[in-house]
Write a structure and sequence with these properties.
With about 150 residues, the chain is mainly alpha-helical. The protein has a single domain (about 15-154), classed as Serine Threonine Protein Phosphatase 5, Tetratricopeptide repeat (Alpha Horseshoe). About 80% of the residues lie in helices and about 0% in strands. The protein has 7 helices and no strands. Helix 6 (about 110-120) packs across helix 7 (about 125-154). The chain is globular. It starts with 14 loop residues before the first helix and ends with a helix.
Length: about 150
């Protein structure tokens, strides 16, 4: 089996929970975001530290934001991506999702901080994949943050 991009994590979901989660994914694919969100919330009531569920719900809120421009949904996405990073700190996928969410919220320093955190604790192979996909963007962000930091010091 081919390795998943941006490492996943060991998830402790029952078969029934996985079936329910897949139903939520089907609802999302049918653009029934409200129903998909409700299913995720119920699953997270039982498994609040689930990396999969937090990333998946964060992605739903992000998608909701993209279609409805509801800033509060993006803040909810941030909360769930952060929770995913906390539950799986070495997951490249969780880190990448959190990084992009922070970036989209104009929380540039937080985005770079997350990228640097992942660089230290994450799988070097995953970090290389992230750099391959987002290296130019990350480099520009780091330059921006570094020049801002230099300006604050001088």
């Amino acid at each position: 089996m081919e390795k998943e991009k941006y490492s996943l994590w060991k998830e402790d979901l029952s078969e029934a929970e996985i079936i329910i989660w897949k139903t939520a994914v089907e609802r999302e694919n049918d653009n029934d975001l409200d129903s998909a969100i409700e299913i995720h919330k119920k699953l997270l009531d039982k498994k609040p530290n689930s990396t999969l569920l937090n990333i998946s719900l964060g992605s739903l809120y992000e998608k909701y934001f993209d279609t409805m421009c509801d800033h509060n949904k993006m803040l909810l996405a941030e909360r769930h991506f952060k929770k995913a990073v906390e539950s799986a700190p070495k997951s490249g996928l969780a880190s990448c999702m959190y990084f992009h969410c922070l970036w989209d919220l104009d929380k540039r320093e937080g985005a770079v901080k997350e990228m640097r955190r992942f660089k230290v604790v994450g799988d070097p192979e995953d970090y290389s994949e992230v750099l391959e996909d987002y290296g130019e963007e990350i480099g520009e962000i780091e330059k921006s943050i570094d020049s801002t930091s230099i300006n604050k010091v001088t």
